[in-house]
Amino acid sequence: LGLFPSIHKVNRETMGEVFFPLGIGVSAFFFLPHHLLAFQFGVLTLTFSDALAGIVGESFGKYRISLLKNKKSLEGSLTFSVATFLIAISVYPDLRTFSLIIPMAMTSLLITFVELVLLGGLDNLLLPIVASYIFKTLVL
After folding, report:
1. Count of CB atoms within 10 A of residue 33's CB?
2. Among candidates 132, 138, 140, which has minimal Cα distance to 94?
3. What is the distance between the alpha carbons of residues 76 and 58, in angstroms, rounded to a whole number?
4. CA separation for the pair 119, 128 (Å, rounded)
5. Sign of the C-alpha dihedral computed for residues 23, 35, 108 and 113 taken in this order
6. Which residues make Cβ contacts (< 8 Å) with residue 138, sequence separation at least 6?
7. b/e map of 99-112 (b: 16 or more CB within 10 Å)?
8. Strand partners, 64
9. What is the mean pLDDT of each run of 10 residues along the chain (140 residues)?
10. Taking the mean position of all CA atoms in its chain, how far away is CA 12?
11. Is the peptide bond preceding residue 5 cis, with omega within 30 degrees of 0?
């Protein structure tokens, strides 16, 4: 129907617009209601980190990373990692817990690697699930 042209206006083959709601739904199935913080982290990572990485990578990306037929920019990946780390800090209920800075940084780096290797919009399906799981495992 052409209602959301920005979703379909991507220069590569992708199923991201289909996988986005599926990823959130599957994540909700596995993590709600018992792991609300993990679920929130996964959805926020998909929503903000992935979107910011795309914007920065397409607008300012000069250095390319090629991994498994996937070409992303270093600038976009760094943005993804920093945004994911900031989301982890903001989601966790006790900001005074400095002992979790390293697990949050490791979480951010692991999820950034996952985002780098996923092709064809699969990041929209798997990012909220993997991010929620890693956050639950390493941080909570």
Report:
1. 7
2. 140
3. 8
4. 15
5. negative
6. 103, 104, 106, 107
7. ebeebbbebbebbb
8. 73
9. 53 72 95 96 96 93 81 93 95 76 94 89 92 94
10. 19
11. no
Looking up tokens 């929209």 gives 124
List alpha helices for the chain, DSSP H: 5-8, 16-31, 36-44, 50-60, 74-91, 101-117, 122-138
| 3-class DSSP state of 86 | helix
Q: Name the residue with tokens 């209601």.
A: 33
Asked whether 131 and 111 are in contact (CB, 8 A), the reply is: yes
Tokens of residue 3, six digits: 């209602």
Residue 37 token pair: 């913080």
Residue 12 in tokens = 């590569």
Q: Supply 61's token pair.
A: 């990306």
